[in-house]
């Protein structure tokens, strides 16, 4: 049935009244990237895995297509922030453009690591996976025996 291809925000009889160009645009929308609900970095955020080991945290963030210079890391009061920014443009000066697209992606994720030490944090980007190793600081003793004189 043809009405199944019509996006929900169009009236049913728009297809018959507007002609072939609108029908073609509707098909372009239908088969466009991201239809119906495909996950992507452009419309979503990146995945983070967090391991809590005895002496350190290991954070893995999936960042396919990002370079080191497009990633920013910071640790402030136990809050690890991973931010990414990417701008994609192609310069072609010998063409007469009717339509041209540019893509800009910016995302931020925060992870709270209560006993994270700010020294000796290591980060490595390999095959689109950013691995961050955050050592834990020694926990202060909360109970102390007091000697009586």
Automatic annotation (TrEMBL):
InterPro entries: A-crystallin/Hsp20_dom (IPR002068), HSP20-like_chaperone (IPR008978), Small_HSP (IPR031107)
Pfam families: HSP20
SHSP domain sequence ranges: 39-149
Similarity comment: Belongs to the small heat shock protein (HSP20) family.
PANTHER family: HEAT-SHOCK PROTEIN 20 FAMILY MEMBER (PTHR11527)
Name under which the protein is recorded: Hsp20/alpha crystallin family protein
């Amino acid at each position: 049935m043809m009405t199944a291809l019509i996006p929900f925000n169009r009236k049913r009889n728009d297809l018959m009244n507007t002609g072939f160009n609108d029908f073609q645009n509707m098909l372009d929308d239908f088969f466009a990237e991201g239809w119906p609900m495909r996950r992507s970095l452009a419309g979503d955020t990146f995945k983070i895995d967090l391991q809590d080991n005895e002496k350190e945290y290991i954070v893995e963030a999936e960042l396919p297509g990002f370079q080191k210079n497009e990633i920013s890391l910071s640790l402030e009061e136990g809050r690890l922030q991973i931010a990414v920014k990417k701008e994609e443009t192609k310069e072609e000066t010998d063409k007469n453009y009717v339509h041209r697209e540019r893509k800009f992606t910016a995302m931020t994720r925060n992870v709270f690591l209560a006993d994270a030490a700010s020294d000796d944090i290591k980060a490595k980007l390999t095959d689109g996976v950013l691995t961050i190793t955050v050592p834990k600081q020694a926990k202060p003793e909360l109970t102390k025996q007091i000697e009586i004189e």
